[in-house]
Recover the amino acids of this structure.
């Protein structure tokens, strides 16, 4: 008969009674983390949680390294945050440190723990609890001094961890050397890819910042990209956006860019030169009238670019580039197009 210690039995009995409390804790932490990440404008792939089953807790508590499982095991409630990049992981860690009280001895960066000469499971494991201020709130008071674990990792780190976890069980945790070597190569490749994603993400941020600075200064000799186009449109039509005449949305940006290039517009300054000087004034009057008639009238950046290309060369655009048919135009829209010499018959041909 297997002998069990009093501390082991006490831990099992306690978890059997309180597992429901940990399930509620898991739900609350997941919900709170989603609110925090959304509030801070953080992009994330997924935030999920799981509460350790009684059987899983018993198996872990039996391990020799735990002399007092009740005070040494912290992952009964486990939460996982999956980000897109390593820089996202770092930002998420700062938010977790900001909003929770972390246990420093049990907050571990697995990348550091593995060392420089090893590849494999990498993620950040934080053990924490609600901070004193939050724990005083009625909805959190039941969890005062109750710890939970938060794992923070990238999508690729998560994919590797899930694969390694599943396949290792099939080999009882021991793999043939040739397979271990190939897995190490894959793990190293994933790590390099993660680092490359991080660099590309940073370069896109820097490019976006550069575009914004140039646009504000009126420097428009830039290639048309999704970033430069959206930034330019927001800047050019900010008055219409502020009046709520125009929705700052570009739903078919890739198609619009292709169309502009087919129409000979390859740079932002090309686009700017093809916008009539009185366009904003005229379209503002038209939009006000149309919105007075129908408050649900919808006009966004896609529509703006459509109008600009129609005005540039309606015959080419509406027949060769994007054959278009409108069965019914508002009277105000007809007048607007005609004022720029657009033959309305091309809308229905």
């Amino acid at each position: 008969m297997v002998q069990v210690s009093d501390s082991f039995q006490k831990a099992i009995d306690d978890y059997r009674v309180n597992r429901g409390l940990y399930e509620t804790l898991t739900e609350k932490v997941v919900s709170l983390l989603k609110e925090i990440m959304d509030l801070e404008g953080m992009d994330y792939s997924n935030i999920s949680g799981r509460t350790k089953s009684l059987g899983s807790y018993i198996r872990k508590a039996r391990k020799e390294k735990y002399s007092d499982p009740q005070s040494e095991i912290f992952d009964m409630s486990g939460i996982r945050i999956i980000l897109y990049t390593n820089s996202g992981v770092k930002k998420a860690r700062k938010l977790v440190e900001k909003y929770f009280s972390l246990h420093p001895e049990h907050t571990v960066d697995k990348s550091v723990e593995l060392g420089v000469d090893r590849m494999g499971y990498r993620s950040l494991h934080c053990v924490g609890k609600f901070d004193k201020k939050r724990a005083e709130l009625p909805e959190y008071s039941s969890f005062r001094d109750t710890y939970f674990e938060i794992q923070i990792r990238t999508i690729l780190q998560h994919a590797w961890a899930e694969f390694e976890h599943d396949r290792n069980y099939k080999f009882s945790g021991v793999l043939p050397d040739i397979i271990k070597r190939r897995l190490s190569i894959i793990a190293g490749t994933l790590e390099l890819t993660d680092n490359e994603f991080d660099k590309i993400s940073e370069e896109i941020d820097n490019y976006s910042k550069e575009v914004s600075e140039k646009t504000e200064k009126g420097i428009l000799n830039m290639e048309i990209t999704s970033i430069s186009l959206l930034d330019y449109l927001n800047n050019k039509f900010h008055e219409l956006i502020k009046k709520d005449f125009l929705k700052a949305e570009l739903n078919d940006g890739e198609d619009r860019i292709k169309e502009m290039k087919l129409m000979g517009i390859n740079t932002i300054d090309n686009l700017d030169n093809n916008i009539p000087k009185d366009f904003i004034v005229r379209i503002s009057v038209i939009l006000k009238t149309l919105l007075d008639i129908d408050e649900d009238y919808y006009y966004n950046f896609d529509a703006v670019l459509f109008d600009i290309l129609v005005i540039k060369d309606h015959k080419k655009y509406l027949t060769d580039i994007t054959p278009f048919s409108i069965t019914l135009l508002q009277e105000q829209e007809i007048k607007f197009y005609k004022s720029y010499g657009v033959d309305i018959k091309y809308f229905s041909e």
